Amino acid sequence: MSGKVQQIKVHTEGGVVTTAETLMVVVPNNDFLEVTASVQNKDIVFIQIGQSVIIKVESFPYTRYGYLTGKVKNINLDAIEDPKFGLVFNVIVSLEDNYLSTKHNKLPLSSGMSVTAEINTGMRSIISYLLSPLEESVTESLHER
Fold first, then answer.
1. What is the model's pLDDT at position 117?
2. Which parts of the sequence belong to the AprE-like beta-barrel domain (predicted)?
């Protein structure tokens, strides 16, 4: 197996490790990368395996370098607590390519890069989007306490 060491757990020479402790994480060469995306609890019901995903790599501004495409591969069934967003579900996205293409070359990606995943969950008209707060307040105001 050939690959790159991504994480090393023991940094000291002669350091002691316990049984079954992970020493390092190795990312194999020539293996397709996957993205682990966090989806908020309120949005998870709209995500399905096989949905198309657009991946924007933070290191390469998408307006200049474009974006990657992928598909939802797996949806974790257990929510985890995120300090910023509350309950989130991890969604695994498989990428179609391990590089961004420009006119002249291919820019390789590496494990650990920050990305933004955009999962298309449907379309809405602009008027529907603008009127939804009004519709919600009217619906809520018609209920008796």
1. 94
2. 33-122
